[in-house]
Amino acid sequence: MPRSRDAVLSQVLTVAQMRAAEEELIAAGTSVDALMQVAGRGAAEWVRRIAAGGSVTVLCGPGNNGGDGWVIAEALREHGNAVQVIEARPPATGAARKAKALYRGAVVAAGEIAAADVLVDCLFGSGLTRALPDDLHAMVCTLAARHRHRIAIDVPSGIDSDSGAALNDALPDWSLTIALGAWKHAHFAMPSCAQMGALRLVDIGMGSVAGAARLLHKPVIAAPAADSHKYRRGMLGIVAGEMPGAGLLAATAALRAGAGYVKMAARLAPPAVPPELVVTSDLDAMLADGRTSTLLIGPGLGRSDEASRMLARTLHAGRATVVDADALTLLRPDMLAQSPCVLTPHEGEMAALERAFGLSGKGLRRERARALAGSCGAVVVLKGPDTVIAAPSGEVVVEPRAPTWLSVAGTGDVLAGTIASRLATNCRGLEQALRAAEEGLWLHGEAARLCGPAFTAGELARAVQTALKECLE
Question: What is the pTM of this model?
C-alpha cells in the first residue's frame, strides 16, 4: 500500500469515530451506496481468495453490514462462484435495499443450507451493543458449524466493537475477519480478538481521525552513527534486588536491543554473568555517574523497605527510567520526578498503581492506561494478551496479537530490558519514551515469533537481536 496511506490505515477507531469519518466522506461527495460498493467489493476479493472457486453462503442482516453482504454476494456471483444468500432480516436501510436489488443470485432459507465451503457473516457489524436474539444466535452458530471456512465482515456478529466483549455466549470462531474502512478496537481486544482468525483491512478512502488510537507498527531503527561510541549509544543502568536472575534476563535483552553499555548494580551476585555485562555492588556510584542515560528498576527487586528506598533513590537520580515488576507495587506519587518514565504493569500491578494514584480502575483497558498515564505523567505499557500503550498526551497505541507462547515466566523482564535499551539510545523526553516503548514492544513480539513454540525467557532475550536486524534502515 502507498506510504501516504500508512498512518490512516493504522488508525484504530471507536464506533463513534468510524461514523464521524464516514459522514465526512459522505459530506465530501461520496454516497452511502458508493461506499458500500467499495467496501463490499473490496471484501469480496478476500472472500474469493479463501473460497478458491468453492461455494459461498452470505448471511445478511437488516443494516448496512447486511448491505455489504449483498454487494459481496453479487461480486462473487459475477466472478463465477456458487453463491447463496440467507436474508436473516429484510433490509432496513436505503443503501441495503439498493444493494439487495442489484443482486442477481439465489436467496435461500437458513434451513435449506447443507454443508458448504465458506460462510460470510454480514448479520451485524460494528455498532452492536446488545445480544443477538435467540433465533439469530442459533442461526449463526448452526451455519458456522456447517461451513469449512468462516469469514466475518467488519466485526463478527455478537461482538461489541468498542470493548471486544462477547454479547452472547458460545459464539463461533472465525477463520478470517475483514475490517471495513478502519480497524476497530475489538480486532485487538480480548476476548474477541482470540476468535477472529486472520485480520485484513479494506481501504474505503477515509481520512485521518483526530484522537484515534493507532496500531503498533514495525519501527525503523537507524544503525549507530559513524562517530558513535559506547556512551553516545547510551549507557543503561539496571538496579537489581533480591532475585538478580530477573535483572540478568533484562540485561540479556538490553545488550541486544541497541544500548552501547549495560551495567547492573546488584547486592547479590547474579548467576553466570556474561563478560559483556558490567556488575557493581555500588548503586549510589551508578546513579551518580553522569554517563548513565537510562535506568531500569523492578525485575527481581523485591518488596521490602530497602527495595522501596532503592526505588525512591533511583527515581530521584534525574535519569529516564523504566519501572517494572516489584517496583510498580512500591511506586507512590511522591517518588516520581520530572524525568521521562515508562511504567510496564501487568493487570495485578496496574490495580496496585490505580490504588496508589487514586484512580477508579474502571473502564476499558485503554481508558485505564490513558488515565494512569495522565495522572502520573509517564508512558504506560499495560501488558497482557491485548497490550496497549498510553502516553500522558492521551495518545494510545494498540499492539496486534502477539504469540501466545509469550505466556511464560520471565518474558516481562525481557520486555522491560528491551524498552530500557531503546530508551537509553534516545532519552531526551516523553516523546522519546513513547517511541522507546513502541520499539521495545514490537521487538519483544517479533522475537517471540522468531523463537517459535515453547521458548524460554532466555531464548526470547537472545532473539531480540535478530528482531532488531529487521528494523534497520
Answer: 0.94
